[in-house]
Amino acid sequence: MTRDGSGGGPGSGGGPGSAGEPDSGANPDRLREAREAVVEYAPALADLTPGRTGNLSVRDGDAVAVTPTGVPYDSFDAADVPVVSLEGERLAGRMAPSSEVPMHTGIYQHDRPGAIVHTHSPWATTMATLHQRLPPIHYMIAAVGREVPLTDYAPYGTEELAANVVAAMAEAGSDAAILANHGLVVTGPDIETAVENTHHVEDICRLYLRASAVGEPHVLTDEQMATVEERFESYGQQPDAE
């Protein structure tokens, strides 16, 4: 993986701790912001995944605010949002956490991103059923790495799946992975970036599958991707130089 999520706002790291309710040393203001970010961005899952099958989380230090399991994405508030430790211990929240907590906490333990999005979005999940990694057919894949690797299959919600995801992302140096016969996971330094990059990956999966229907997609070389990565460093609005 390529970005560690260490830094300032909610979902990008910070102080130690948990959910504010337990006396665990968390920064209550930052953790409240993390839970509010889950509420704000959870409805975005409705555009990316069928039913109630997706989930997302935001990390504040050693505490993780995660979407609750099995409820509509617009039906809960910040006090409902479950908070778990990096070991998966439930710390706070009126609702039970997502069944994919082991995957979220496994990724956070390994690479410490600020946020994670998991979907069953149609194009990425089609790739998952084909057991197909996503190669660099479009330069925007550089938002997450030089490829999106394919994990080995494991049942959902298991430590085995978590280990497979961590291993695949680490080996590929990617902030995303296609989960065999399952879906997609994307990490980011904050939840806004993670959601945006989930859309990027889904769109490139769509391009790959459509192009593959009529021919063999051309794959960018390592040299070409290195140039893209260099240009990405100055992309967008940059702070004024002092």
UniProtKB/TrEMBL annotation:
> What cellular component terms from Gene Ontology apply here?
cytosol
Task: State the InterPro entries in the record.
Answer: Aldolase_class_II_sugar_metab, Aldolase_II/adducin_N, Aldolase_II/adducin_N_sf
Gene Ontology BP terms: pentose catabolic process
Which intervals of the chain are annotated as region Disordered?
Answer: 1-31
Gene Ontology MF terms in the entry: aldehyde-lyase activity; metal ion binding
Regions of compositional bias (Gly residues) in chain numbering? 1-18
- State the species of origin: Halorubrum xinjiangense
Q: What is this protein called?
A: L-fuculose 1-phosphate aldolase
Asked if the record carries the keyword Ion transport, the reply is no
